[in-house]
Amino acid sequence: MHCDKKGENITEFISKIVSHFPLAGRLIKIIPIIQGHINTTYRLITEDDEGIPHSYALQAINQYVFKNPEEVMENICAVTAHLHKKILAAGGNPEREALTVIYAKDGKSFHIDERGEYWRIYHFIRGASTYDTVQNARHLYNAGYAFGRFQTLLADFPIHTLKDTIPDFHNTKKRMADFFAAVEKDECGRVKDVLPEIEFFRERANEASRLVDMQALGLLPLRVTHNDTKYNNIMIDDETGEALCVIDLDTVMPGLAAYDYGDAIRFAASTAAEDETDLSLVNLDMHLFEQFTAGFVGATTGFLTKAEIENLPWGARLITLELASRFLKDHLEGDKYFRIHRENHNLDRARNQMKLVLEMEKHFDEMCAITSKYM
To answer: What is the number of domains present in the chain?
Structure first.
């Protein structure tokens, strides 16, 4: 049971946090949500005086990952306010199509508890679900459209106002250098057990800089990007199967569109979960790849440049390589970043993503042809 320093149980502890937010009614249920590698999340259910239930999502922001939670929340509040205006102007329902931040009673977008932890609350979008694996191709087309629409809706957002909350987050060139620095340091003595995996990254180190070099040369523009476009960061309507809302906006920052596209592909078009240990099950489903690509490119037509669209397959290939290196780096450093649920969990994740890189290399010409088809 989660307890604070004074031995309070989870209900007492969460109730104290919740008391700082203007929620509807009294708290009647707390449901832990175990999805996600980074933040601690609970679903809250309250009941008002008329017996009507209301749902919220409560999160503690991981300060090991996000060194300045207030800047994270500043970005989220600005982006969600912009999305609400655009969705409303288009005749949509911003309460279901975008996250809604619940401000604390003191007017801030967060509450700091006595231990210094930052807590925030969103409206919980009911009648919609997230999925760790793709349920059908229609879902994936809609997810591609939703992530593309997310970027398009933010096309006129003042990008210069966004805080760079994790500098060089998707600087694949730097990520690779950081990985080899961790190999050199070998702080947990694990390098000797993963020598073939390390060689895999040595063989691909030079190509890692392709997109960041193009951006530095002005060939690829910076966009307002999500930077964590996993399939389970899309809320899917339970009745219609339509993609409703992009969630988990902690890493919204300036970035490259190809990496947002690519991160979604590596997660959703894989035939296995990203920690599957039977690597024979890890393949690239080209039908799912095409469905997501059709949705994403369709939603960004007239917004992304020709060079951006042409490099979308490279975004998938390099972001998968990057994440594989990050998983293995975390394993070498003692599993400090990504939450693990078993021994060698990050090593399993790294091997899984390495297999997916091989699959993308094998299908790369086909990936490029499909992308060109929808350009």
So the answer is: 2
From 283, 70, 256, 53, select the one nearest 163 (Cα to Cα): 70
Q: How far lies 79's CA from each of 104, 119, 239, in Å? A: 18, 19, 27
Query: What is the structure's pLDDT at 372?
Result: 93
Tokens of 310: 């042409």
CA separation, residue 323 to residues 17, 96, 164, 304, 374 (Å)? 34, 30, 19, 24, 27
Asked if residue 132 belongs to a domain, the reply is no
Spatial separation of the C-alpha atoms in residues 148 and 304, rounded to whole Å? 10
- The residue from 102, 126, 150 where one domain ends is 126
Per residue in 255-286, pLDDT (tens digit) is 999 999 999 999 889 999 889 999 999 999 99
Q: Tell me if residue 28 falls in helix, strand or coil.
A: strand
Burial class (CB in 10 A: 0-12, 13-18, 19+), 342: exposed
| Alpha carbon distance 239, 237 (integer Å) | 6
Q: Please state, in angstroms and rounded to a whole number, the distance separating the CA atoms of residues 326 and 363.
A: 23
**Are 144 and 115 contained in the same domain?**
no
- In contact, 207 and 176? CB cutoff 8 Å: no
Long-range contacts of 329-337 (CB under 8 A, 24+ apart): 329/178, 329/179, 329/182, 331/190, 331/194, 332/182, 332/183, 332/186, 332/187, 332/188, 332/190, 332/191, 332/194, 333/182, 333/187, 333/188, 334/187, 334/188, 336/64, 337/64, 337/65
Residue 351 placed within a domain: yes
Structure tokens at 354: 């390495």
Which two structure tokens, joined as six digits, stand for 293?
A: 């690509």
Q: What secondary structure does DSSP assign to 125-173, as a single string? A: -TTEE--SS---HHHHHHHHHHHHHHHHHTTTS-GGGS--SSTTTT-HH
| Mean pLDDT score of the chain | 92
Q: Which domain holds residue 40?
A: 10-126
Give the pLDDT of residue 35.
Answer: 58
Instruction: Give domain status of residue 5, yes or no.
Output: no
pLDDT at residue number 39: 65
Rounded to whole angstroms, the Cα distance separating 64 from 250 reads 13
